[in-house]
Amino acid sequence: MKQPKIENSQSTIDNRQSATGVAAVIAGAGQGTRMGSEARKQYMMLGNRPVLAHTLLAFEKCDAIEEIFLVIPRGDDPLCKKEIIDPLRPNKPIHLISGGATRQESVYNGLKAIDGRFGLVVIHDGVRPLVKIDHIAECVRVAEKYGGCILAVAASDTMKTVDEHDRVIVTMKRHMIRMAQTPQAFYYNLIRGAHEAAQKEAYVGTDDAELVELCGEVVKVIPGDPYNIKITTPEDLKLAEALMQYLQS
To answer: Which CATH number describes the domain made up of 18-149+181-248?
Structure first.
């Protein structure tokens, strides 16, 4: 598969100070097909709030974030405003953006809405409601230095690469393996350029950091949190409920 390239990527980084400030893109446009429910997972209740409301609250409380660009399914604006945003009474601007057919398209829609008004952007999954505020701030701090930063946790099990017939090809060096999470933070021009380069090559990455990596740029990894789970299945929601009770005890 061809890898996307950014022409003159160094100039992209050199121009990073053309805008200042930090915005967040919250990817909340998923359809939740693996949840097995008519209700989308981001709107399901977790404790006393919808999943997405917990996520937004963390970014609302993080001093490093100035504005939030919330990407949601097309047509969900009235529902999201009434059920998610208004009850939070946010002090920061929360802009509602229509999502695309894939997560990558949805994030790009959020990046386009920012339109270069901020120098750095933090991208986060809307269904990771247990993210810690200090981890958001640390991700921003490190991205300001290196250009890109992600949270990740070390692999606790032995990792193996297999072929299409599930036969082991190689056992990975576990001490070199990290399981990526969000938030992921980048210079705005860098991550937008990486997305646009991927579009030209019709390349779909598994996360935003991959697009930056394929452009030959540095992405720094900092320790994540095993509790920062992504809610995808009914079992994940039950686990998040238990974790939230444990963290609040």
So the answer is: 3.90.550.10
